[in-house]
Amino acid sequence: FSMLPDSQSSSSSQSRSRHTKLYKGRGAREDHNVRRREVTVEIRKKKRDDMLLERRTRNFDPSSLNVEKELGSEAIERLMSPSPALITEGLILTVDKMRSSLFPLGMALASSGVMSKIVKSYSKNERLVLVILRNLNMAGPNFIDSSDHTAAFSSLVALMKDSKWVQSLDQLLFASCVIYEKEKGVRNSQDASDLAEILMNLLPNVDNTDMVLLRNTVWMASLLIRGTSTEAYTVPLLSLLLDKSSIRDFDVLKDSCVAFSESASNTENEEFVLDEMIPTLVSLISSSPTHLLSPIVQSIVALFEESRDFIDKFLECDLLDSIGVILNHNETCADACWILGVILDPPSRRKIVATNEALLSQIVAIVGKGTYDQRKECVEVVHRLMALYTHKSDLRLLGLSDISPFLRPFSHLCIPPLCDLLTVMDALLVQTVLETLLIILNQDIDKGVRDAATKIEECDGISKLEFLQNSRTIEVSMLASEIVNLYFDRDQEDSDDVHSTVIDVVNQICNVQPFHF
């Protein structure tokens, strides 16, 4: 964190010019870094989405129902190719074969896994894919050249009702999910309601013995809960997803947690959220491996944002006993710090954290060595804990006559990383850091010591504070000036030293023993 906040130098205009050029250069580099990070995130997201689709599809089985004989080796080779252009050619050949065939080819496509490859190309070949899905159960003479989303979705739902297609349910669901996500027009159709009823019967009977079917069933249920007005099915579907959340699979848990998060905004689901969902989410924290924690925590964050009643219920379910687990995990640490900050917002909740030595140690470690986002969220936690010093009435409310045995060592350990954060390009964060340092320094004055001031001096905090006195952000400038003038005014310190020296000399003279003759 070497970049300094906006400031106006009090030195010569030449110095200001040098500083301005330096600032602009750093700003340009930062813009480049932001763009680079955004591109990197997009690439990773694309890879992650591709991996997700792979986990939802079957491997190609060319021997199944002799699909190569039905479509021809040329079409199969193109459909299996990594080249988008060749896949498009394969889709065109497939449509031609379906149009000329005397019997439906859909069963062969689904059972062989070719259908998965076809659906995965949907984003670049929408019309061709929709035509194929619309005609899965159509022979050539009845072929319909329709690329309508609603018709294709309706055809897929109709096939799911047909017992002959039970072995291809996973692929039918996969295709339905892709269309449902893309086309809002199908979400409030009768077919969507029919599909919700199908899932009500399917979810209790699908388990981790068929992971592809399980993932696609949960995915479809999650989409229906979020996108279709199915009051009669929402809570039952949520309950079934809650049962599946114990299965240790990232895709299943992610889709379930997304459904939990979005359903919480509906007041009709509030009782279920309080009685079933929140206790389950808290229990999952301690029972899940670390790679599954991220969707759980994201769901908790969404519920925290939704209602204070939900926050109270989480605390009633002992969320604080488990929060150390998500603080220790790098991917969930920043969110865990945010959750902790929200918990500490009312003073009445601060005692349990202020007296938890292990939790305070974790906070010190994060604010000192975490990522920028983690440290930023953690600073708010430190600030709210330190705020206990400024409100004596809060101490009485918490039943604490003196909190310094708990927080004083903690506050001093936080000083070096807090001073380090004084150089970041975030005025609001710097302001919070300054407010926190001021509280810590004031507490030392009440005790007649300068331990905190000495700590700040040792970690080169004074030079950073002096620089911030010239910040363009008024609040930052005022806070930095207040700290420097009250605790680090060198002129005043020199005057105090002279005054002390004079007093010492006078005392020595007054204490001289008289001569005896």
Automatic annotation (TrEMBL):
Residues 1-35 are annotated as: Disordered. Residues 1-65 form the IBB domain. One of its GO terms (molecular function) is nuclear import signal receptor activity. The keyword Transmembrane helix does not apply. Residues 16-26 have a biased composition (Basic residues). The keyword Cytoplasm does not apply. Belongs to the importin alpha family. This is IBB domain-containing protein.
